[in-house]
User: What shape does this take?
Amino acid sequence: MTDQELIDLAVEVRDRAYAKYSNYRVGAALVDEHGNVHVGCNVENAAYPQGSCAEAGAISAMVAAGGMRIVAIAVAGGSDRVTACTPCGGCRQRINEFADDETRIIVMDDGDEWRAYSIDELLPHSFQLF
Assistant: This one.
């Protein structure tokens, strides 16, 4: 799967997000080590802390399907249109759990260009139990 195809899936699933409180929709699409694609979107809740992030949904789908490593993940977010949106701190840690040095995290930058980052670029000196 190309980066552009992954981006397109993230943008597509973003449109299905349940964001009636913030109107900020996020979609995530990832490829696991088996080449399988998994998607997720943010799902808000009136009790804000109970909502879930798009990245968390995609990672949960990957694990449920038997995947354990993220090869690449694209994240698309924004209110009216797709704008710059990097994973939140919690999702950076979630991605880190399933990433390696080769994992690409693809997001739109402030110049409306898509860019790939490593997990070390987004989460330097990350917390690790092992």
In short: The CA atoms of residues 3 and 106 lie 8 Å apart. The mean pLDDT is 96.
